[in-house]
Amino acid sequence: MNQIGIGIATGKIILIGEHAVVYGKPAIALPFYAAKIETTVTITQSESTIDCVFYTGKLNTAPESIEGITALIHAVLKYLNKENVNIDININSMLPASRGLGSSAAVSVSIVRALFDAFEIKITEDIMKELVLVAESIHHLNPSGLDANTITRGVPTLFERDKLMDSIAMNMDGYLVVADTGVLGNTKEAVATFGTQLECEPEKMKPYLDEFTQLAMKTVRGLELNDIASVGEAMNRAHELLRLFGVSETTLDTLVNAARRAGAVGAKLTGSGQGGCMIALAPNLTVASEISAVLKGHGAVQTWQYHLKEMV
Ligand code: MEV
């Protein structure tokens, strides 16, 4: 048995289809390698402890705010038949939380990997997804599984709820700029807002929901055929639809409009919205750098940029 286990996970970026994916529509998500989460598990004789950005102390007196994490740790120990083993668990995150970059799923994946590593047990993709869902169901309302799947697989993915996923050909020469508004989003609330819009005005909103399928397919084709204009168009329309569902807000709209004026072929919020991050698609590095500078000038607290082919 190892004395120490280490688990690393990246975040994710949703290119198209957030929220609609909860209702069975296809979505495209990419791994976000720019920031990582590393969890270390040390087996100990003393009482179990946890050290993370939200709390440091004994595991059994952890606050309700990290209930998802503690439930996950107990579920994994139970699955491994190690409920009586004490551990010190340290979660070190470079991925900002509540920004639509998948930090909660990434924390979960890194915890599961670290625990399996500590006990030298191999994990399958299916067991990982099942365990991560323990925490996701506490953090989120009705999670689609998109975040957990993308982070577990670490490749660009076309995802549809409860279906087998496809990896996507990334033949496109564009750059993606990711900008953090600095406004904290809340996935549970944003998912509830989207659902309420759909319930209150089904005749008006259902066609908008259905449109996300065409946008995802247009994006898949665009990525395959290196057609940056059509991917940009799909992103712009997706942002308009997400606004109609009430999951954008002023800061996101300001950054999206500023990015388009600075030369982005497409721009939209990414993740659950109502704060968090936005993404902009640029044809080359010069335009991507210009967009990043403009977004910072408009209040973005952090930006990242990278070539779409780097995400493979
Ligand atoms: C959150 O990263 C993505 C959402 O579509 C929720 C989900 O898929 O469970 C908003």
Could you characterize what this model shows?
It is a single chain. The chain is an alpha+beta fold and 312 residues long. It folds into 2 domains: 164 residues, Ribosomal Protein S5, domain 2, CATH 3.30.230.10; 136 residues, Alpha-Beta Plaits. Helices cover 42% and strands 24% of the residues. It has 9 helices and 11 strands. The strands form 2 sheets. Strands 1, 2, 3, 4, 5, 6 and 7 form a 7-stranded mixed β-sheet that branches. The protein has a 4-stranded antiparallel β-sheet with strand order 9-10-8-11. A hairpin with a 6-residue loop joins strand 6 and strand 7. Helix 1 runs parallel beside helix 2, helix 5 crosses helix 6 and helix 8 runs antiparallel to helix 9. The longest helix has 24 residues. The radius of gyration is 19 Å and the shape is globular. The two termini are 34 Å apart. The model has no long low-confidence stretch (mean pLDDT 94).
Entry keywords:
single chain; about 300 residues; alpha+beta; Ribosomal Protein S5, domain 2; Alpha-Beta Plaits; seven-stranded mixed β-sheet; four-stranded antiparallel β-sheet; binds (R)-mevalonate
Task: Give a nutshell description of this structure.
The protein has helices at residues 67-79, 103-118, 125-139, 146-153, 187-200, 202-225, 228-244, 250-261, 285-297, and strands spanning 4-16, 27-44, 49-52, 55-58, 86-93, 157-159, 166-167, 175-180, 266-270, 277-282, 302-307. It has 312 residues and is α+β, with helices and mostly antiparallel strands. It folds into two domains: 4-167, Ribosomal Protein S5, domain 2; 175-310, 2-Layer Sandwich (Alpha-Beta Plaits), CATH 3.30.70.
